Amino acid sequence: MTLAWFAFGLLLATSDPAAEKAFREGIDRYNHRDYAGAAESLERAVRLNPQEPEYHRWLGRVYSERADREHSLLQARKAKHEFETAVTLDPSNTPARRDLSEYEMDAPWFAGGDKDDARAQVEAIERLDPLQGRLARAIYDLRALKRPDLAENEYRAVLAAHPRSADPYFEILEFYQRQNRPDAMASVLAGTPADPRLAYWRGVERVMASQNFDQAERDLKEYIANSPERSDWPSHNAAREWLGQLYEKEGRLDDAAAVYREALRIQPTRKSARERLDRLEKRK
Question: Which residues of 198-215 are buried (b: 16+ CB within 10 A; e: fewer)?
Fold first, then answer.
């Protein structure tokens, strides 16, 4: 799931310290793609404090990742249950509602997909937080209705509101990247508040636009060297793949192969890096 990520969330002041420790261990393991370990930690947090909605929300995220990777219907159903529990415990939790709605947009009916309820969740978010509602509506327009034009209208309205947080801008940048619109990305980047993730997105926009490759290389290398690996940020391997595409455009095929191999060394199951390396090796 391509999702809009929020801060890890403030825990209730009354949280059990052991539960909070297990929660934070789970988030750390999730960030390092240790989904089995993350599930173990977050399940422990839920057992210790079953009334904390954020524990359930993040456990749902872990189950959702495992469902995708393991093609597991059981994990998928568990993911939806955890998202629903988080919303029941805290109906004002807009991140939980977004997670639930996006799950229901993407999942088949036999795994709990329900576009009608996804729309209902979007409408609830719109009532709670108009800006977050527009972001949720854009995802619904794009994934459920297959209408990128409607999604773009929502994103333009978000930009017109000039959000103080950088997160909405990065959602919009991802949309334009998937639409292959570097021109629109450049416009969004010009108004994005300062954030370490800007180095990644500036590099991506320059590679897509096939311009200023020297600066694009510096941007992407800076992001890899100085940013943390976090589940809500672009991965270092994503930056490596963009570096590889840059090197291919410059004709530096050995350098491109090297960064794809490095991505595969760190994440052997990364399909996109494998496909790029295989395609490159056929050209040599």
Answer: bbbbbbbbbbbeeeebee
Rg (CA), the chain: 20
Q: Tokens 């490759």 belong to which residue? A: 213
Distance between CA 161 and CA 151 in Å, rounded? 16
What residue segments make up the domains of the chain, in order of their start? Answer: 12-128, 196-284
CB 62 within 8 A of CB 42: yes
Right CATH number for 196-284 from 3.60.140.10, 1.25.40.10, 3.30.390.50, 1.10.10.10?
1.25.40.10
Q: How far is the C-alpha of 93 from the C-alpha of 126, rounded, in Å?
A: 12
Q: Taking residues 269-273, what's their average pLDDT?
A: 92
Tokens for 141, please give them: 């327009």
The answer to whether residues 263 and 273 touch, using CB atoms and an 8 Å cutoff, is yes
| Count of other CB atoms within 10 angstroms of residue 174 | 16
Question: DSSP 3-state assignment of 109?
Answer: helix
Q: Which CATH architecture has domain 12-128?
A: Alpha Horseshoe (1.25)
Sequence-separated (6 or more) residues with CB below 8 Å from residue 50: none
Spell out the residues 6+ positions from residue 137 whose beta carbon is closer than 8 angstroms to its own.
Answer: 122, 126, 154
Q: Is the separation of the CB atoms in 58 and 42 below 8 Å? A: yes
Question: pTM of the entire structure?
Answer: 0.89
Structure confidence by residue, pLDDT tens digits, 112-155: 999 999 999 999 999 999 999 999 999 999 999 999 999 999 99
In whole angstroms, what separates CA 33 from the centre of its chain? Answer: 13
How many angstroms separate the CA atoms of 125 and 137, rounded? 9
